[in-house]
Structures are given as structure tokens and as C-alpha cells.
Write a structure and sequence with these properties.
With 358 residues, the protein is of the alpha/beta class. It has 13 helices and ten strands. It holds the Pfam family PALP.
Length: 358
């Protein structure tokens, strides 16, 4: 059959080549008259909605080549949700079964999407150590060991994760910016994205600064600055970023600095990004942007071009970041602010009264 331009053989061929979009409003304060340029790499343009589509396909295809994954096999992974979606997308096309193990804090939207792709979802308790037998890491490993023809993706330590960002994501950013980039900012879940892109960019230009955005409660900044854990791991609400252990894909030596960001700033900026920039991104994207803005204000003495990787879509967090009740219940939105909000849902009669139309 003749191929026509613009027609793909399957959905997997649409992964990557996500857009780089200039931010115009939410970063104005960080400019401080220096006219920094903030460019967002919008990863929700990937078909399953996040940067993890890249590694889902890459890890599966690498496992196939090595003979670790055979027809009819089962893929098992510990995930915050997005890697599961990337794996599930590729598995649906290729005909594999999937079992994903998630901590309970992950959004219901992610769980529902995983089930929609045909995956089995296993939930584990929050607040347990990584080596605790109840953790999502431990449960996933145990399940994988019990099954025949099973591939344990192991995203935190699988070098195929790092490699796809070194060979694909990094070159995309370099080409899109024409090599004109001063700072790259991303978060660390597994470390694959930030480390892989960092290695590529620094080989092109060693002067490019690579900044890790880290939530309060994560141990990674301590390991970077002190080589040990100073503050014990805590809890945070933003999903998919920050760690309570050091993944092998997190290459701290490739980073130049860390910026800590709290939940409040992350969720506030998430709402601003959609109302001021039209970007419906998740809280981790806002956390990363907040870190970039903080770094620019404190550390950049001349106008700079800053690329910020925004990992996923806000549609996966409608029950959290865009749910006023959840925000109030979690101390991230005051009742007073909620009463003053314009973007609420009301009955027609109440709106007619407000506008004096009755």
C-alpha cells in the first residue's frame, strides 16, 4: 500500500516532537526588566499525555530487542501513573498485558486511564519506605518475579530511560532553540529526563546551566549539596516529581543547582498557567516553572533563555488541582478565596439574580 504524507502507521509514531511555547504573562515578575525568555516544552502533546510516552515505548522496544519481552508477555511497573500510561499505550498497540502498581495518592483520572488502556491497577499505601514490602516498588518487583514471560520495566534504574532523553529529547530541544539556550529546568521522578537531556546539552555547550526543581520533602537536594540525607523524607502533594530514594537514572553530577518549591506555590501557579497562558498542565509543570522563575530572579545577571520541561496535562488532575473542594480540604485554597472566585459553577437562577436579570 502506498503511504501518504501525514498518515502514520500507528499512534506510537506520533510520540515526540512536542512544541516549545513562549510564556508571556506568568513569568513577568521573574523578568525583573532583564527580559529573560521562558520557553515551555509541552509534553502533553504526546498521545498518552506526558513525557513518559517517550520512555514507555523506548523501554519496551529495547526489551524486545534483547529478548526480555516476548509475544503474549506481561509488563509490570511501579509508577506514579504517567509511565504506566506510556507503557500501556505501547502495550495496547503491540499486544501485551500490563500490571501497574501505584501509591494511593495518585489521581483517580490516572487510574481510570490505565484501566481504559486495559491495564490491571494495584494500589499501595502512602508514606512507607522504598524497601518496605508494602511500597509500590517492592510490590511491583514481587509481582514481576512471580510471573512467566514478564518484563519488569524498572524505570528508576533502567538505562533505556536515560538513553531516549539523551538521543531524542535533548536533540529536539537543541534543534528547536537553534542551540540558543542558557538554562534547562526539569524535575526528577526517575531522573531520566533531566539527566539524559543534561548530558546532551552539556556536550553541545558546557556553559548551559541544568537546574533540578525539587519539592520540599524530597531527599534529592540534600544528596546533591551534602552527599547524604540531612532532612528525613517528608510528604508532598505534587505527583511525579521528587524522591525518597536515589534512582540510578538520577545523575546528580550533571546538574548545576537545585531549587526547592512548596505545594502552595505549585498549585497556585498551575491555576494561573491555564487562565493566563491557556496551558492546561499538571502541578509538576508549575513546580518546575516556579523553580525556573526563582532561579532566574536570584542567579541570572543577564538576559537569558530558559527552557522549562512541562511533563504532563492538567486533565489528569481535575479531581485535585482543579477541584476547589480538594484544594480547600488540603489547605491549598482558603474558603475566603473560594467565595471570591469567578470561575465557579452555579445554577441559572442564581446567576440571573447576580446579574439583576430576574
Amino acid at each position: 500500500m502506498n503511504k501518504s504524507p501525514g498518515i502514520y502507521d500507528n499512534i506510537l509514531q506520533t510520540i515526540g516532537n512536542t512544541p516549545l511555547i513562549r510564556l508571556n504573562k506568568v513569568t513577568q515578575k521573574a523578568d525583573q526588566g532583564l527580559k529573560h525568555e521562558f520557553l515551555a516544552k509541552i509534553e502533553y502533546f504526546n498521545p498518552a499525555g506526558s513525557v513518559k510516552d517517550r520512555i514507555g515505548l523506548a523501554m519496551i522496544e529495547a526489551a524486545e530487542k534483547r529478548g526480555e519481552l516476548k509475544p503474549g508477555g506481561t509488563i509490570v511497573e511501579a509508577t506514579a501513573g504517567n509511565t504506566g500510561l506510556g507503557l500501556a499505550l505501547a502495550a495496547a498497540v503491540k499486544g501485551y498485558k500490563c500490571i501497574f502498581v501505584l501509591p494511593e495518592k495518585m489521581s483517580e483520572e490516572k487510574r481510570a486511564m490505565l484501566r481504559a488502556y486495559g491495564a490491571r491497577v494495584v494500589m499501595t499505601p502512602m508514606g512507607v519506605e522504598p524497601d518496605d514490602p508494602r511500597s509500590h516498588y517492592s510490590v511491583a518487583k514481587k509481582i514481576a518475579q512471580s510471573l512467566d514471560n514478564c518484563f519488569y520495566a524498572n524505570q528508576f534504574h533502567n538505562p533505556d530511560n536515560f538513553d531516549v532523553h539523551y538521543h531524542v529529547t535533548g536533540p529536539e530541544i537543541w534543534e528547536q532553540t537553534g542551540g540558543n539556550i542558557d538554562v534547562f529546568v526539569a524535575g526528577v521522578g526517575t531522573g531520566g529526563t533531566l539527566s539524559g537531556v543534561a548530558k546532551f546539552l552539556k556536550e553541545k555547550n558546557p556553559n548551559i546551566k541544568v537546574i533540578c526543581a525539587d519539592p520540599y520533602g524530597s531527599i534529592l537536594a540534600d544528596l546533591f549539596y551534602h552527599g547524604k540525607i540531612v532532612e528525613p523524607p517528608g510528604s508532598w502533594k505534587v505527583e511525579g516529581v521528587g524522591e525518597d530514594m536515589l534512582p540510578e537514572n538520577c545523575h546528580l553530577k550533571l546538574y548545576d543547582d537545585f531549587v526547592k518549591v512548596n505545594d502552595q506555590d505549585s498549585f497556585d501557579l498551575t491555576r494561573r498557567l491555564i487562565t493566563e497562558e491557556g496551558l492546561c498542565v499538571g502541578p509538576s509543570s508549575a513546580l518546575i516553572l516556579k523553580a525556573a522563575m526563582t532561579y532566574a530572579e536570584k542567579s541570572l545577571q543577564k538576559p537569558s533563555r530558559i527552557v522549562v520541561l512541562m511533563p504532563d496535562s492538567g486533565r489528569a488532575y481535575m479531581s485535585k488541582a482543579f477541584n476547589d473542594k480538594w484544594l480547600v480540604d488540603n489547605g491549598l485554597l482558603s474558603e475566603e478565596a473560594l467565595q471570591k472566585a469567578f470561575n465557579v459553577e452555579v445554577k441559572a437562577a442564581d446567576e440571573m439574580k447576580r446579574l439583576n436579570l430576574l
